[in-house]
Amino acid sequence: MPSNVTGVIQDLERVLLSPEQIAARVAEMAARLNVELAGRVVTVVALMDGGLFFVADLLRKLEMPVRLHTLSASSYQGGTATTGEVKVNWPATLNLHGQDVLLLDDILDTGLTLGAITERILEQEPASLRTCVLLSKRRPRLREVVADAGFEIDDEFVVGYGMDFRGRFRNLPCIGILNLDPAS
Ligand SMILES: O=P(O)(O)OC[C@H]1O[C@H](OP(=O)(O)OP(=O)(O)O)[C@H](O)[C@@H]1O
């Protein structure tokens, strides 16, 4: 793993998705949700920090009334592999009983994060639960998760548009593959 990444676009091996490609797909996802959830009041549960830009961009395109709850869910601790332990700050006052919940996250990888959050949400007996992610990796899951995905991507570590490596790269407007030197 490189010790010298600075977190700028020059550190990328290549750009996977440009800001324009991301914006076009997010608009399509929002248009579909606007049809399928029309007439409902939607309770969004948005996972931070990685989901920050996806959630901000998608929500501004939703036309139904929305309530927003942000949760901090982390298990990678800045690295490229899950620690296996999903830490969630679930507010004691959060009650999703009877609500139409839309769960949003940036990326579905092992499935551990969304699996853990889905379990917590379902314990509260929402009226419905729908999950959307911007990216879904083509890889075997450690936990099965049902989610609509903006893009299916190969099993490579990605950064940008909210996603980090060692706390950096979140601010890149594109999504890219890191130049990881296996020897370093
Ligand atoms: O499917 P999984 O293997 O669980 O991986 C997906 C999760 O990993 C990342 O979160 P991370 O733990 O890096 O925290 P962050 O959102 O604060 O960056 C990402 O934002 C997802 O929530």
UniProtKB/TrEMBL annotation:
Q: What Gene3D superfamilies does the annotation carry?
A: 3.40.50.2020
Catalyses which reaction(s): IMP + diphosphate = hypoxanthine + 5-phospho-alpha-D-ribose 1-diphosphate; GMP + diphosphate = guanine + 5-phospho-alpha-D-ribose 1-diphosphate
Residue ranges occupied by any Phosphoribosyltransferase domain in the UniProt entry: 20-165
Question: In Gene Ontology terms, what is one molecular function of this protein?
Answer: magnesium ion binding
Task: Alphabetically list the UniProt keywords.
Answer: Glycosyltransferase, Transferase
Q: Highest taxon of the source?
A: Bacteria
Tell me the Pfam families matching this sequence: Pribosyltran (PF00156)
Q: What is its EC number?
A: 2.4.2.8
- According to its record, what are the GO cellular component terms? cytosol
Question: Which GO terms of type biological process are on file?
Answer: GMP salvage; guanine salvage; hypoxanthine metabolic process; IMP salvage
Question: Entry's PANTHER family?
Answer: HYPOXANTHINE PHOSPHORIBOSYLTRANSFERASE, HYPOXANTHINE-GUANINE PHOSPHORIBOSYLTRANSFERASE
Please state what the protein is called: Hypoxanthine phosphoribosyltransferase
- Species: Prosthecobacter vanneervenii
Organismal lineage = Bacteria, Pseudomonadati, Verrucomicrobiota, Verrucomicrobiia, Verrucomicrobiales
